[in-house]
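Problem: given the chain below (254 residues), write out its structure.
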Amino acid sequence: HFFYNKYSEKLVAVPTVATNYHWKVLVPAIEFGLMHSILFQLALIPVTVSRSLLGWVATKTSALPLEHIMTLHIHIGYAFCFVVIISTLLFFTFFGKLCHDHNNGTETVDMCSKFRTEIMATGLVIFGLANVILLTSYFRGRLKFEFFYYLHIIMVFAMYAGTLVHTLDDEFRKGSKVGKHRSQTFRWVIGSVAIYIADRSWRYLTQESEVPVLSSHCHADGGSVTLQILKPWWFSFLPGQYLHLQIPAINSMW
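Solution.
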C-alpha cells in the first residue's frame, strides 16, 4: 500500500527525461514501503512480550496459538533487523550514486548534503543497534544468559528511543513540508508500548510475591528438582499455566 502510493506520486513528480529516472522513482517507493514495514514491526514487538495480557487472552480463547508467541516475537525481531539493514544499505546506495553523479556533473540534484543531515546520523545509530541486536540474538546460545538478557533489553529500548528521535529531526522541528509529512514513529508505537508498560507494571504490582521454600527434593536422574513452596493467598491458576521462579541465593534471574 505505502509502496504503491509513493510510486504513483513519483511517477507524476519525476520527469521521464530526468537523470537516474528509475532510481528516483523506484528507490523512494521501496524505502517508503520498508519504512512502514519497520513501523508495523515496532508496533507488534511490545505486544508479543506482554505476558499478563497474553495469559489472560489464552484463558478466553483457544483460537490463537499463543503457546508459540515467543517464536513469533523472535521471527518479528529478525525480520525487523533484516529490513532495517536492507533499507539502510539501499538508502546509502541511492544517495551515494546520486552524489557521485552530481560531483561528475551528470546529475543536477545535489544529494551529497543528505549525508550531513541529522536524520542521517540517527539512521546510522539505528543501523548499528540493529546489527548488535541481530548478532547477539543469533548467537544467544553461546552467550551467558544474563549478559544476553540485559544487553537485549538495553539495545531494544535504545532502538525505540533512536527511532523516535529519528523522525523528530530538524525538519520536523522547523515545521517544513518534509518534516510535517513524515510518518512519526510515536504514532505507530505509543499504543503497544503503553500496553507493554501497563502489563509490566501489573505484573510487578500484583503477580510477584516472596514466598518460602518448604521443601526440596533432587530426583535420582539428576535432571529435575521438586520444590514445595507456600502458595500466596491471592494466587490461582489454570492447567497449562506456568511460573517464573527467582532464587536469590543462586542469582537474580527469573
